[in-house]
Amino acid sequence: MAYQFTIPSEDAVILFEYAKNLATKGVITYGGADTPIEGATDFLWMLIIAAFKKIGITEFFSALLLNFVGAVILIALVKPFWARLIMVLGLLCTPYLYSSLSGFSAIFFSAWYCWCLYLALQKKSGLYFSILILCLVRPDGVVWGAGLILLRLLDVQDQATRKKEIRNLITHLVVPGLMYFLWRAWYFAEWLPLPFLVKVAGERDLILVWSQSLVAVGATLIPALIAVAFVKNRRIYL
Fold it and tell me: Where are the domains of the chain?
């Protein structure tokens, strides 16, 4: 029904154009160009949609399907039946639903983050590679994933385990991430995603940053630092 009665957002259509060109031309570009053009910010999201396009599934339907899979993952991660009902009601009421129905990766990204959170809380393997995927789906994954890495490292009990965690962090996240940025620097001749290049104009009012940005970051960072302060003997109590 969503596919029949909703239309994608303009920004989502822009990413769909990148996915279509990759599927049909084999080049990550926009419009009728045949040379690489930076702009597909949600990189892995674009790759998956391009793969679906390659087998004949439209871009918008692919986005809706992936978000549906994300909703299923979110519901599956919650065990009690009553909690699943609350999850469904939450999905129906959240603005993320509107964004997802507009062609964005909101629910899919949220579901993958919750999967990463599950791995972190249950102390399971695969956390760092899952965070890598999170970062590739959306650049926001760098911020969200950093908290999970901190959680995992603070919960380590002994030196041997800590060394193993750091080794896994480097081999499964840091090195692949650096390789990705080196590749995009070669492919697009740009180091950073498009928003970092076009949304940084204007004079700063506090040396290199804007004071309003510091307030916004502080609103998130300060509660996180308070939570870290409650960490005792490297065990998490919050």
Answer: 7-201
Residue type for position 38:
E
Tens-digit pLDDT profile for residues 149-203 = 988 988 888 888 889 999 999 999 999 999 999 999 999 988 777 766 666 655 6
Q: What angle do CA 3, 16, 95 make, to 5 degrees?
A: 55
Q: Angle at CA 54, nearest 5°, toward 133 and 34?
A: 90
How does pLDDT run across 57-70, given as a tens digit for each residue? 999 999 999 999 99
Whether this model's pTM surpasses 0.85: no
| Cα dihedral across residues 149, 70, 75, 96: positive or negative | positive
- Amino acid (one-letter) located at 176: P
Sign of the torsion formed by the C-alpha atoms of 214, 216, 222 and 224: negative
The torsion angles phi and psi of 212, rounded to 5 degrees, stand at: -65, -35
